[in-house]
Amino acid sequence: MFHDDEYDEDLDGPGAETPADPRDPGEAFVPADGVYRWDMAGAHRETYAGLPVAEPHVIVHHRSPDPAGFAWPLYDGDPLEDDDGGTTFADGLRELLATVDGSRIRALVVAGCSARNAPAVLAAHAHRLPRLRSLFLGLVEPEHWEISWIQQGDITPVLEAFPRLRRLDVRGSDGLVLRPVRHAHLEILRFETGGLPGHVVRALGRCELPALTHLELWRGTAPAGAARRRGRSFRTPESAGGMALRRRLGVRSATPSAADLRSSFRSSPNFSGLTAS
């Protein structure tokens, strides 16, 4: 098991970039500057869903790396170039599955500046990933690419194709689409965005997610693409009757309406017992 302790010592000392927060953002509401983790040398380190994200040397140095012991990174093209329709991502996925046993992979991260094609390609290969439980779409740091520039697409296919998925993290909202869907086992759903589109929130309100225990929305600000009519898309949690959320709702926003949203969720009978932050 990977532990953060050896990295966390003295990270607030001279030369530290951002103090590491050892908590999992899916288990607690971590401050925004603690989501991106740096060691004393400034080199990026990252864990996801309790697993270290595999670096390229993992396969080289481990003749038979444990597929269940890492979160495996894949890349979905370059947004500065023409969209290849998922060819780059599909090639990378096939290469990974030819190297490690896909039937034992528990976590994947789609790294880089785009995750636009990943959901559809992953859905087409769902039979090769029967134990996939955690997926991060858009794992890239702001030092490399602004969060509002990360390209997303329709994320619904992964929810439809992976009925045992427990966790889905989405970073960025450019092109983000969600359609109403029922998912019986999703427990953690996080949207890190510079502006969460209103149509995504409305679709979320029509989803049926009975197992959901942690919902986190980075609402952002209007200039970054958030719903511009204050609170309009966020004001009706009563419509989210399929989300039996009983633990945590987090709303991160630079606008006063974030507090309005938290209050409305707390007062909704569909979210009784909710801990909001």
UniProtKB/TrEMBL annotation:
Residues 264-277 have a biased composition (Polar residues). Residues 1-12 have a biased composition (Acidic residues). It comes from Planomonospora alba. Residues 1-27, 255-277 are annotated as: Disordered. The lineage of its organism: Bacteria, Bacillati, Actinomycetota, Actinomycetes, Streptosporangiales. It comes from the Bacteria. InterPro entries: LRR_dom_sf (IPR032675). This is Leucine-rich repeat domain-containing protein.
